[in-house]
Amino acid sequence: MRFVTVNGEDSAVCSVLDRGLQFGDGLFETMLCVGGAPVDFPEHWARLDEGCRRLGIECPDIRREVTAAIARWGAPRAVAKLVVTRGSTERGYRCAPSVRPNWILTITDAPKYPLAHEDRGVAVKLCRTLVSLDDPQLAGLKHLNRLPQVLARREWDDEYHDGLLTDHGGHLVEGCTSNLFLVADGALRTPDLTACGVRGIVRQKVLDHSKAIGIRCEVTTLKLRDLEHADEVFLTNSVYGIVPVGSVDGMRYRIGPTTARLLKDLCQGVYF
Question: Which helix (H) or strand (E) holds 244?
C-alpha cells in the first residue's frame, strides 16, 4: 500500500516543470516509521534543513504536516520518503528568488528486517561503478542526483543485500543504500565522507554510542585491503538500522562482539 501527498494535497500529481524532475534540484530524506511516528525525525529534519540552506532553497516548515500524515497512515511499521524541490519554473537553469518549493511525501509499508542476518550476515558485492568526488557545495548532501547509485544497483539482482562503492582512487566510500563500518584491531572504522558520500543518521548514532561505551572509533580513509583484514563488517541505514555483513565478494566475516553489542543497544525493539 502507498500514500502520496504533494504539497499537502490529496494528490499524486506533480508539475512536469518541477525542478526536481528537470534537474534533480532538490533533496530527500527516507525514514523508518514505527507506531505512527518517524524514527529520528529531528535528525532527519535538521539534515534536510541544512541541505536546503546550502542549496539556497527555502525549506518549508512542514514538520507538523509530515508527522500528522504518518500518524494517519497508521501502519505499525512504514517507510516515509520526503522530497523537497526548489519548485516549478519555466525552461532554463535560472529561477526567480520568489519561486516556491514543492514537497512530496510518500509512505509505504516497511520491509521486514531479515532476522536470519543476525546469525550469518548478508552478502554484499563490490560494484564496478565508481563515485566521483563531489563539488564542495554538494559534498554530504542527500540531493536528488543519484545516478551513480542507480547504475551501481543495476549490477546485481537480489542475491546481494547491497553493493559497496569506491571512488576513482580505490577508496571505500559507502554502500549503494548504506554506510559502511569495519571492525579491525579493536577499533570501529568508517570511511571519511568529507569529499563525497552521505553521512547517514544511523552512522552518526553508531559513532556517538560507540564512543560513549568506550569503543575506539576512527573516521578515516579505507581501501579494499582494509576489507581483507577486517574482523567484522556491517552496514547502516535509516530503514534497517544495522545489518551485519557475512561476505563481500568471497571475503567472509563473523558477527563479532562489537556488531552484536551495537545491534542490541541501538536496533532491538526499533528495527526488529
Answer: strand 241-248
Please name the fold of domain 117-267. D-amino Acid Aminotransferase; Chain A, domain 2 (3.20.10)
Flag whether the pTM goes above 0.85. yes
Q: How many C-beta atoms lie closer than 10 Å to residue 43's C-beta?
A: 17
Fold observed for domain 2-109: D-amino Acid Aminotransferase; Chain A, domain 1 (3.30.470)
pLDDT single digits (tens) 174-225: 999 999 999 999 999 999 999 889 999 999 999 999 999 999 999 999 999 9
* SS3 category, 46: helix
Burial bucket for residue 242 (CB in 10 Å: 0-12, 13-18, 19+): buried
From its phi and psi, is residue 109 left (phi > 0), alpha (psi between -120 and 50) or beta? Answer: beta
With a CB cutoff of 8 Å and minimum separation 6, the contacts of 122 are 114, 160, 161, 162, 235, 243, 244, 245, 246
